[in-house]
Amino acid sequence: MAGRFSPGSPSTRTTVRGGHVPVPVPADGEAPLDLGLTLGPLRRGPADPTFRVSPDGSVWRASRTPDGPGTLRVGPDGAEAWGPGGPWLLDRLPGLLGAEDDPAAFVPRHRLLAATHRARRGLRLTRTGLVLESLIPSVLEQKVTTDEAYRSWRLLVRKYGEPAPGPAPDGMYAMPDARTWATIPSWEWHRANVDGKRSATIVRAARVAARMEEAAAMAPADARKRLELIPGIGPWTSAETIQRSNGAPDEVTTGDLHLPGIVGWALAGDRTADDAAMLELLAPYEGQRHRAARLILLSGRVPPRRAPRMTPGAIAHL
């Protein structure tokens, strides 16, 4: 099944059966949506099999929806979707493109953030409405380098997922369903360089997938509490998930190896900041702390590296 949707202003919904749908001209004072900035956090590495960017700037996503796998393409000329999950993806496209986000609620109180906010006016905070889709790769990213986590995600999705429906670019896959995640044998986790703690966490979450997905309709704080009922899911993982699934502008990530130092350096010249210091610096942005942290990362102002990078592990060879 295919359908089309015109993103235009994220709050405008137009569905047609065929033809190209032009993107409406933004209203006075409204910045055009920046697809790359808005949907970029959903990409898990340059070779993510669920995410592609075409030369024309169109974004392709393959998702596992409650109705099954679906492929969504969003581009300058509109959007279209295929597969059993296609209608579900089109129905929730406004949230994906930031219709529920309010950038005007952010009031910069630092020169760096004011400049970055102006330069990135097309940024919206996405809301996918899908929890496992963000939870599983976030668990894979626990305590390992991002490159390791991206490789694990890529191997598992390609092996156990389904080819993306419709005319998706070659090599795109929708991630496995919850039952498949819960039945991946231990040696396949091992081959994907995923240790027992992380694989057990994913299996536990997959076994109660329906309860996990309910969190997408909850207030962010309640959603995080729901996720953290699963052993192995703590504040870092729940924040990384709910930021994407719920479009939560205030859910700042704590427990991160680098973020406190980056925020501390950007706002106070303090590269030694811990979580407590980071939260104190972000206190003026209460209600928008995640957006503030995102803008800091987009500013490119990071402390000079002193410590060596985390050494990748290789459990598959132990």
TrEMBL record:
It comes from the Bacteria. The keyword DNA repair applies. InterPro entries: Alkylbase_DNA_Glycosylase/TA, DNA_glycosylase. Residues 1-29, 46-71 are annotated as: Disordered. GO terms for biological process: base-excision repair, AP site formation; DNA alkylation repair. One of its GO terms (molecular function) is DNA-7-methylguanine glycosylase activity. The keyword DNA damage applies. GO terms for cellular component: cytoplasm; protein-DNA complex. Keywords: DNA damage, DNA repair. Gene3D superfamilies: Hypothetical protein, domain 2. This is 3-methyladenine DNA glycosylase.
